[in-house]
Amino acid sequence: MSGRLVTIEGGEGAGKSTVLDSVRARLESHGITLEVTREPGGTAFGEAVRQLVLDPSLGPVCAESELLLMFAARAQLVRERIRPALAAGRWVLSDRFTDASHAYQGGGRGQPGERIAELERWAADGLRPDLTLLLDLPVEQGLARAAQRGAQDRIEGEQATFFERVRAAYRARAAADPARFRVIDASRDVTSVRDDALAAIDAFVAAEGRA
Ligand code: Z5A
Question: Is it the case that residue 94 has pLDDT exceeding 90?
Fold first, then answer.
C-alpha cells in the first residue's frame, strides 16, 4: 500500500516547527514509517535553492523568479524523496508544500492561480497532500511571534498587508477543500494547538485503517 503525504502549513509565526516533532512522534506511535522534510528544501539541491530564495541581501526578486525557484526545489523533492517514499509505503510529513506557493506567490504576490496549478501538474508531478494541517492565526499575532526569533529572511521582511493576502489565500484553499484541510486555531497556547493537531492526526490515521 502506498504511503500518505501529510503537510503542515501556516503564515508567519503560526507554530509549524513547534508542533512538527509532536506530529512526527504521534504518526510513529501508530507504527507508521515516516520521512520528514521541509519546503523549500528537503534535498541538497532544494536546500541550496532555499538559501538563494530567502537571502535578504539579494534585494528585490521578481515574483516569477520566486515562483519558479519554489517549484524547482519542489520538483527535485518530489522525484528524489517523496514519490520513492510513498511508493515504498512510507509516509511523508512536510513542513509546507504547494499550498504555500498558492498562498505566498499566488495570494501574496498575485501570480495567477492557473499558472501555479499548471506548475503543480508539471513540476510537482500532480502530487497533492492527503492531509493538510493549516495553523491559522491573525497576522499581527504571528508577526509578533516571528519577531522574537531575530533575523528576518527576505520574505519575512514583507509588509503586514502581504501576509493578510497570504492568510486569505490559505483560508480560501481550506474552505474549497474541506476533505483535505484541517484548520487549527493557532492563536491559542501551544498545548491547545498541539492537542488539536494530534487529534486531527489520530482521526486521519484511523480513517486510513492504521490506528
Ligand atoms: N515559501 C513560499 O513563499 N512559497 C513556497 O512555496 C514555500 C515557502 C514552500 C520559509 O518557510 C519561507 O518560504 C516562508 C514561506 C516561503 N516565508 N516566510 N516568511 P519556513 O516555513 O521555513 O519559514 P517560516 O514561515 O518563517 O516558518 P517558521 O520559521 O518555521 O515558523 P513556524 O514554524 O510557523 O513557527 P515556530 O518557529 O514554531 O514559532 C514561531 C515562534 O512562536 C517561536 O518563538 C515559538 O516558540 C512561538 N510559538 C509557537 N507556537 C506558539 C503558541 N501557540 N503560542 C505562543 N508562542 C508560540
Answer: yes
